[in-house]
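wait is this the right file?? whatever heres the structure
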């Protein structure tokens, strides 16, 4: 087996290096490039071959890029960095034509069609003007944010993650959260999976192997960002997944010294109060409040050797502390009733230091090397407080220190038509997580299902969490790529390869391996866990090979490509010592979990409607695989497939909160005055690595990996100088869903029952209605679980379809004013109306939520007098969905079930009181404003800023308590009150 693995690994890497050499000699592709393209004619309309085109810009270390028109008069200048360009057209016998002030953004093809008069009419014709605002050749959907925009709009955390949230239609986000928190991660757009949102640096992944393939422990420093493009759809064959991709173009320095300094500060004295009567009526004693936020950063760049070697470096120190609404320290953290001390609110604190450096070396006119290194930390004191139902003692301290990212990229302009690129990057993640020092090691976590805050966890971090109380995560990720581009006037042929490997070690320990569930302070059940855990997963490899062509025929440009994805992962052998409830365990290595092969076509078409470059019709149809990191490998680790958690009913007869029955006995038993029920899974405590298995057609094969198709139709219109409007329809549908089948039961092994919803004015129609379609397994099958993950298509058809419409605009005025943003209206409908095990799957199986608006607009306006500038950001997002999980007792179930629950007379069931997709809170709105006063001292620009966040002092709830009871709908996260941040920005 080992030799087979070594041969496969050797073959993968040998193929990679062979492809590099192959691409050096043949056409290739460049990641995330911008270009200038068009047709050159004379004044009679005849095409002109052999015209020399020179593109010059201060952002090019080589100063100039030169190409020539082909026999059809077509040209294309590739791999241009964002910046302002001058393009000169020269041909003997004709006047020289110069186009100046071409402002080229990231991943954009600027179409410049030129007419050249004969030399007798003019010697040089100069035209000054901005680049076209409509890309008539690319179908890639993106929003571009330049450095001057990033610096001048109000943002609490000044990170690319935060700026992604300003894209119209982005969901899975919250307004007014603690700057730099994890709430800024996991953004989704047009129905994509949130975890598929990626951040890249010059086209290289800068994310670790987390959920969905897009975990983002790095916090990026705005000081080193030259420009950022947020790709929202219709990505080419170069991209593996179909989620948001934010590509950062870092600053390179230059022939002139330049730098920046930023310092911002706010604290409790600069904050208002948005505690409304509505919030008080929901039981809230106080709102989230800033304690202190600071953010300090610098950037410095310049020449090491003029026109040959440039450098840029930056650093940052940022910290944010705030209270968490509705959560307080426990008056007595050692008792079994959560009694909040309203004078001591919970504190959530994050800090994110960063240091980085970039070196750019122009080896000669054709070859350039870029080296980038970043050391980024992320620490959180109070992990889990924001948006979760846990008391401070149940939260954790988490540190991502250090996160190390390194990158080397080589680019070679071998000829005016042939470009070669190869790169290598590495990413190292080290995350430690532990309980607070004041939590005793012998503390047992508890969850109260009723009480003041239903569902709250207290006393210690919940043992039900996957990462448990104490955890450590190590990841080593390696990425290598090679690509090339060969260009004729009509064709841009691209091909490339990317290889990624990941090694991951995850450990966890859940305190006493116990968790108690209480109802009004009385124990009703016990959770037992089998820690410590240790898992090693490896991705070897995640390979992508792609080829595509951009073919322009008159006004039509066809973008056609194909990508081959190969993903293979494994788990290493594991030894675990004996634990409290389980003996020592040994687990073998598992190969090919998964081993997937997919072919993903990409097709797009762009049409210049009138031939003027002002109106473009675009359509695309693309297949993407679902993002994957180590989730499937982890799920197939023999440890995970063993039963590591079970629950059992518990009657604490003497009220001492100590189980007197034998917890090592999986069957119902009595000890002293206590009674413990049968455990929920009789495989617990056994060395049974196959408690959960995966069907072979889930783990291995061609076309079995989860996927999604995306389709789009857009109209892009140039309105006036530097202003365009885009309207589009977007659709996404997914496939290859998985379900878990309990092989021990059939649908006939379940009995139906109903539950009457409580009478409560907060429920639809005041409550009191009956909820049927609920099922409980028969007592003879209680605790019998043999799970197998299979393709959902084995039981029926499952659908997940997103439909949405966007209307966006991008405007840059001559006076420097900017207006950018737009509106999205969309929804994701799901249907899974088939039965696997329990017929309860048919309850709420068809969910079609309403279309909901999502608005993001930002603008910058320089006041003509006094050096004053005003900027602002307006966000309107859908309110959170309102759901209600009700814990029904055996007594409530008995009249319709006509027997006790399978879990026993003290058992409970959780019932959804509200159909999903039917009730939502009001839309959340926030307006942030910045006032800037500018001063100039020679080449130095100094700005004094006053930012006012949440200027309307909104208090919209972002996360509710979904556990029905007295505290149902109680805010778990809401907007921060209006607050002021003062800052200064210095640029030279």
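ok assuming it is, sequence goes like this
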């Amino acid at each position: 087996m080992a030799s087979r693995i070594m041969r496969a690994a050797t073959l993968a890497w040998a193929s990679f290096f062979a492809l590099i050499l192959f691409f050096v000699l043949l056409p290739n592709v460049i990641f995330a490039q911008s270009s200038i393209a068009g047709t050159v004619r004379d004044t009679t309309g005849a095409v002109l071959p052999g015209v020399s085109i020179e593109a010059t810009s201060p952002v090019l270390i080589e100063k100039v890029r030169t190409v020539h028109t082909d026999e059809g008069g077509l040209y294309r200048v590739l791999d241009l960095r964002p910046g302002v360009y001058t393009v000169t057209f020269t041909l003997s016998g004709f006047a020289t034509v110069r186009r100046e002030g071409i402002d080229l953004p990231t991943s954009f093809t600027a179409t410049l069609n030129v007419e050249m008069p004969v030399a007798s009419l003019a010697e040089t014709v100069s035209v000054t003007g901005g680049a076209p605002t409509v890309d008539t050749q690319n179908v890639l959907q993106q929003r571009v944010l330049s450095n001057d925009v990033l610096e001048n709009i109000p943002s609490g955390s000044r990170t690319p993650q935060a700026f992604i949230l300003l894209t119209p239609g982005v969901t899975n986000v919250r307004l007014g959260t603690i700057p730099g928190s994890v709430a800024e991660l996991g953004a989704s757009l047009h129905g994509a999976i949130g975890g598929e949102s990626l951040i890249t640096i010059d086209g290289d992944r800068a994310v670790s192997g987390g959920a969905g393939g897009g975990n983002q422990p790095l916090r990026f420093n705005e000081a080193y960002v030259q420009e950022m493009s947020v790709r929202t759809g219709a990505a080419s064959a170069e991209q593996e997944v179909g989620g948001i991709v934010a590509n950062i173009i870092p600053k390179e320095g230059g022939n002139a010294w330049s730098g920046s300094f930023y310092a911002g500060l706010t604290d409790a004295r600069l904050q208002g109060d948005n505690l409304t009567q509505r919030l008080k009526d929901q039981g809230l004693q106080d709102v989230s409040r800033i304690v202190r936020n600071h953010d300090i950063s610098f950037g410095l760049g310049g020449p090491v050797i003029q026109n040959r070697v440039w450098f840029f470096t930056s650093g940052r120190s940022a910290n944010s502390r705030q209270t968490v609404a509705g959560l307080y320290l426990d008056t007595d953290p050692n008792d079994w009733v959560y009694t909040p001390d309203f004078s001591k609110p919970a504190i959530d604190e994050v800090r994110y230091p960063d240091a980085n450096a970039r070196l750019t070396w122009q080896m000669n006119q054709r070859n350039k090397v870029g080296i980038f290194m970043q050391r980024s930390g992320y620490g959180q004191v109070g992990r889990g407080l924001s948006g979760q139902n846990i008391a401070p003692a149940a939260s954790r301290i988490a540190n991502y220190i250090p996160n190390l990212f390194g990158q080397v990229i080589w680019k070679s302009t071998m000829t005016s038509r042939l470009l070669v690129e190869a790169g290598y990057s590495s990413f190292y993640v080290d995350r430690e997580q532990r309980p607070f020092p004041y939590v005793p090691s012998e503390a047992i976590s508890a969850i109260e299902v009723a009480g003041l805050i239903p569902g709250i966890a207290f006393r210690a971090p919940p043992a039900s969490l996957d990462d448990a109380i104490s955890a450590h995560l190590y990841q080593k990720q390696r990425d290598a790529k090679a690509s090339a581009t060969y260009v004729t006037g009509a064709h841009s042929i691209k091909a490339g390869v990317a290889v990624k490997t990941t090694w991951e070690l995850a450990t966890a320990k859940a305190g006493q391996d116990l968790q108690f569930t209480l109802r009004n302070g009385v124990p009703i059940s016990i959770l037992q866990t089998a820690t410590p855990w240790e898992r090693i997963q490896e991705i070897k490899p995640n390979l992508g090979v792609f080829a595509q062509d951009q073919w322009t025929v008159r006004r039509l440009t066809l973008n056609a490509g194909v990508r081959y994805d190969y993903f293979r992962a494994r788990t290493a052998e594991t030894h675990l010592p004996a634990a409290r409830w389980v003996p020592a365990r040994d687990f073998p290595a598992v190969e090919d979990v998964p081993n997937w092969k997919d072919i993903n076509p990409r097709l797009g078409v762009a049409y210049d409607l009138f031939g003027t470059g002002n109106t473009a019709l675009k359509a695309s149809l693309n297949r993407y695989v679902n993002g994957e990191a180590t989730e499937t490998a982890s799920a197939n680790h023999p440890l995970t497939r063993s039963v590591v958690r079970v629950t059992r009913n518990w009657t604490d007869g003497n009220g001492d909160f100590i189980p007197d029955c034998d917890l090592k006995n999986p069957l119902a038993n009595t000890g002293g005055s206590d009674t413990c029920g049968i455990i929920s899974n009789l495989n617990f405590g056994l060395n049974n690595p196959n408690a959960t298995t995966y069907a072979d057609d889930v783990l291995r094969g061609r076309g079995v990996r989860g996927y999604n198709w995306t389709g789009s139709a857009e109209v892009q219109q140039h309105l006036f100088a530097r202003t365009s409007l885009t309207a589009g329809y977007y659709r996404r549908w997914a496939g290859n869903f998985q379900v878990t089948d309990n092989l021990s039961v059939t649908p006939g092994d379940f009995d139906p029952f109903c539950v009457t919803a409580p009478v409560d004015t907060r429920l639809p129609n005041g409550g009191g209605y009956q909820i049927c379609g609920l099922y409980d397994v028969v007592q003879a099958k209680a605790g019998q679980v043999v799970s197998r993950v299979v393709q959902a298509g084995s039981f029926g058809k499952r659908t997940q379809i997103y439909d949405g419409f966007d209307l966006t605009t991008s405007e840059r005025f001559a006076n420097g004013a900017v207006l950018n943003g737009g509106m999205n209206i969309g929804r994701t409908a799901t249907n899974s109306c088939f039965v696997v095990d329990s017929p309860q799957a048919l309850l709420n199986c068809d969910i079609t939520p309403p279309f909901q608006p999502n608005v993001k607009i930002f603008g910058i306006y320089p006041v003509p007098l006094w050096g004053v500038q005003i900027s602002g950001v307006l966000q309107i997002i859908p309110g959170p969905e309102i759901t209600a999980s009700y814990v029904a007792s055996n007594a409530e179930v008995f009249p319709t079930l006509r027997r006790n629950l399978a879990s026993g007379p003290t058992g409970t069931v959780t019932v959804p009181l509200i159909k999903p997709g039917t009730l939502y809170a009001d839309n959340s709105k926030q307006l942030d404003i910045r006032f800037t006063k500018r001063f100039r001292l020679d080449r130095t620009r100094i700005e004094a800023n006053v930012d006012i966040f949440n200027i309307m002092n909104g208090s919209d709830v972002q996360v509710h308590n979904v556990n029905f009871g007295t505290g149902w709908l109680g805010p778990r996260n809401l907007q921060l009150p209006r607050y002021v941040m003062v800052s200064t920005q210095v640029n030279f």
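Residues 1-32 have pLDDT under 50 and may be disordered. so i think its the right one actually
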